[in-house]
Specification:
The protein is α/β, with parallel strands linked by helices. It has helices at 18-29, 43-55, 66-75, 178-187, 213-224, 238-250, 261-273, and strands spanning 90-94, 99-104, 107-112, 115-116, 125-134, 143-147, 155-157, 168-170, 174-175, 193-197.
Length: 276
């Protein structure tokens, strides 16, 4: 079971997780789902999703991806009400040091964390906490906080495997010891900013002539997807540009050979699909 980079849909082996609980609660709030929020993607959940998608003039396929999540976000009030904040907290996650840093006016505390493995990295960038859940259980431990990353169900959560803390072993989520995630959860309202920093992708637009570890990461994903067959040198040369264009053509993205947000999102999702 993974907690990140996944589309929610009906499957032979039922999908489970706190992101599905969140989906069901949102659909309940909007009047599309009336059963218990059990965190299992059932046929009833699929039908509720299809009704919501049809009402919002989306593709009514019962698959919950970034577009459906965005529409749910725009139509939901429960998950975006502002909680009372006394000391304006913020969170920094350093994936290289594998720590979570909680910062408030009168407090700064560092917690050891597990982060995404190299094949399924934790996405760098500036995000926010958009949902919180108590006691999701299993691999999610005792607390769950979903991040606003648009292409998957990434979150900060506890764990049932404390030996993993301090390692790069997750599917992209950030794990804390259960006692630590309780402490962070209690101090972190919905809307808290979360900055994820590290040496991989640094949110710049990549194009011919660029170089760096972010270029190398793009090359690595393209090679796994069989679009790139040259060496991983971190140099955005003609072979990399051609691989990007070929990928963009396959995904119906304007084939300009430039890695911007839409191409990066599609690339990360396609890469993650290899590990489902």
């Amino acid at each position: 079971m993974t907690c990140s980079t996944r589309l929610l849909k009906l499957a032979r082996e039922s999908m489970r997780g706190p992101d599905i609980i969140e989906l069901q609660i949102r659909l309940q709030e909007l009047g599309y789902y009336s059963e218990k929020s059990n965190g299992i993607y059932t046929e009833t959940t699929e039908q509720a999703v299809k009704k919501f998608q049809k009402a919002k003039r989306l593709k009514s396929d019962g698959v919950v991806g970034p577009i459906t999540w965005t529409e749910l976000d725009m139509n939901s009030s429960r998950f975006f009400r502002t909680e009372r904040v006394y000391d304006a907290p913020s969170i920094i996650i350093d994936i290289d040091r594998r720590v979570l840093v909680f910062v408030a006016d009168s407090l700064m505390k560092i917690y050891p964390a597990a982060v995404g493995r190299p094949s399924l990295p934790t996405p760098l960038g500036n995000w926010t906490i958009v949902n919180k859940a108590l006691n999701p259980g299993g691999p999610f431990g005792v607390r769950w906080m979903r991040l606003s990353i648009p292409w998957g169900g990434y979150g900060i959560h506890g764990t049932n495997n404390p030996k993993s803390i301090g390692k790069a072993v997750s599917h992209g989520c950030v794990r804390l010891y259960n006692e630590d995630v309780i402490e962070v959860y209690d101090r972190t309202p919905v809307g808290t900013p979360v900055s994820i920093i590290g040496k991989a992708y640094n949110n710049r637009v990549l194009k011919l002539g660029d170089s760096g570890s972010d270029v190398k990461e793009v090359q690595r994903m393209l090679r796994k997807l069989k679009f790139y067959r040259s060496k991983l040198d971190g140099e955005y040369g003609p072979y990399t540009e051609k691989a990007v264009k070929d990928f963009q053509i396959q995904k119906s993205i304007p084939a300009d050979g430039i890695i911007g947000l839409s191409t990066l999102t599609a690339l990360q999702r396609a890469f993650a699909d290899l590990y489902k």
